[in-house]
Amino acid sequence: MKTQEIFTVVEDELKILNKNLKSMVGARHPILHAASEHLFSAGGKRIRPALVILVAQQTSRNKEISPSHRRLAEITEIIHTASLVHDDVIDECMTRRGVTTVHSLYNNKIAILAGDFLFAQSSWYLANLDNLNVVKTISKVITDFAEGEVRQGMLQFSSHISMNEYIEKSFYKTASLIAASCQGSAMLSNLNHSTQNTYYIYGKHIGLAFQIIDDILDIIGSKQNLGKPTGSDLKNGNLTAPALFTLAEQLELQYLIENEFENDSDVEKAITIICDGQGIKKAKDLAEEHIQTAISSLPQNNFHNEDESLYALVMIGEYILQQI
User: Fold this and answer.
1) What residue ranges carry the coiled-coil annotation (predicted)?
2) Domain residues for 279?
3) What is each CA distance from 229 to 55, 91, 194, 268, in whole angstroms?
4) How far apart are CA 169 and CA 235, in angstroms?
5) DSSP element (H, E) containing 95
6) DSSP state of 8
7) pTM across the whole model
8) d(CA 85, CA 77)
9) Interatomic CA distance for residues 150 and 146, integer angstroms
C-alpha cells in the first residue's frame, strides 16, 4: 500500500461522512447554518474520522463498522471544526483551508457562537451514543482544548518555553482529540480496557507527530498549500518545535522573538534563521520518534497488506511525514 492509497480503504465511509456532516449541523438560524456549512464545504484532511473508521475496521468482527462508529467519526470532525473556529478568532486568522474564516466572513460574535453551537451539537450526538465511557472520554477533549489555548496564551513570545511545555500544549490542542477518538472507537468495539488504552497511546503519538509536522509546515509551507499565511504561528508568538530547536543555537532569533517581531520584516528574518539552522530537521526527527512510538503500540501480529486497516494505521505515520 502506497501512502496516497491509505484513504481509499475508508473512501466510501468518508463520502458518507461528508454528506452527513452538513445535515447534522443544520441550525434553525440561517446565519449559524451558513457558518457551519461554510466550514464543512472547505473540506480538510479528515484524518481524525479516517482514524476512527480504521480503528473500527481493525477491531470489529468481520471488519464491520457500526452506526455508532460512524457517528463517532462525525462527532470527532465536528469537535475539531468547532475548535478551529475559536482558534481562528484568537489567532486573528483570515483564511483557513484556503477559504475565508467565519469571523472574517461575519464577525467575532458570530464565529464564537458558531463554534459554541458546534460543540453543543457534538455533545448532543455524543450523549445519544448511549455509551457512558465514550462520553466521558470524548467530552474531556473539549476541556483539553481550553487548557491548550490558555497555556499557549500564557507562553506567547516566551523564548524560555521548554520542549516539554510545547509537547504538553500540543497534546491538549491536537493529540488529545485523536487519542480519545481512537480509544472511543475501540470502546465501541467492546475491546478490553488494556487494548482500548493501546489505541489511545497510538492516537496520542500520531497526534503529536501530526502537530509537529503541521508546525514545520507553518515555517516552510506555501500559503497556497497551507490555506493560510506562512509563519502565522510565529507571528502570533506561538513558538513551536522548529523555533525551539533553533533558539538553542541562534541568539538573533531570541532577540526577534522577545521584541515581538517589532519590524515588518522580522517574521521573514526569523523564518530564514530557522530554515538555515537545524531546527526543521530536529523537529522532523522528533515527529518520527512519535510515529515509531505510535506504531510500536499497535498489535504486532499482522503488519502486512492482507489486513488493510491495520496496515493503513501504520502507513498513516508515513503519510504525515510526507506532508513536508
Assistant:
1) none
2) 3-321
3) 34, 12, 42, 12
4) 18
5) strand 95-96
6) G
7) 0.91
8) 12
9) 6
Please tell me the distance from the alpha carbon of residue 95 to that of residue 252, in angstroms, as a whole number: 30
Q: What CATH number is associated with residue 93?
A: 1.10.600.10
The pLDDT of residue 28 is 63
Name 162's Cβ contacts closer than 8 Å, sequence gap at least 6: none
**Other Cβ atoms within 10 Å of 324 Cβ, number:** 15
Please enumerate in sequence order all residues whose Cβ is within 8 A of that of 212, keeping only pairs 6 or more positions apart, or say none.
170, 240, 241, 283, 284, 286, 287, 290
- Cell matching residue 239: 513558538
Class of residue 52 by CB neighbours under 10 A (exposed 0-12, middle 13-18, buried 19+): buried
Element (H, E) at 96: strand 95-96
Q: Distance between CA atoms of 16 and 125, rounded to whole angstroms? A: 17
CA–CA gap between residue 13 and residue 11 (Å, rounded): 5
Grid cell, residue 57, equals 475496521
What is the DSSP track for 47-79? Answer: HHHHHHHHHHHHHSGGG---HHHHHHHHHHHHH
Domain total for the chain? 1
Nine-digit cell string for 267: 517574521
CB contact set of 27 (below 8 Å; sequence gap of 6+): 33, 36, 117
What the block records as the C-alpha cell of 187 is 470502546
**What is the rounded distance in angstroms from the CA atom of residue 76 to the CA atom of residue 56?**
14
Render each residue's pLDDT in the chain as its tens digit; 324 residues. 566 677 788 888 988 888 888 777 766 667 766 666 666 666 567 899 999 999 999 998 777 899 999 999 999 999 998 888 887 777 777 776 667 777 877 788 888 888 888 898 899 999 999 999 999 999 999 899 989 888 888 889 998 899 999 999 999 999 999 999 999 999 999 999 999 999 999 999 999 999 999 999 999 986 556 556 788 889 989 999 999 999 988 899 999 999 999 998 999 999 999 999 999 999 999 999 999 999 999 976 544 445 788 889 999 999 999 887
Cα distance between residue 297 and residue 95, in whole Å: 36
Angle, CA of 150, 198 and 214, to the nearest 5°:
45
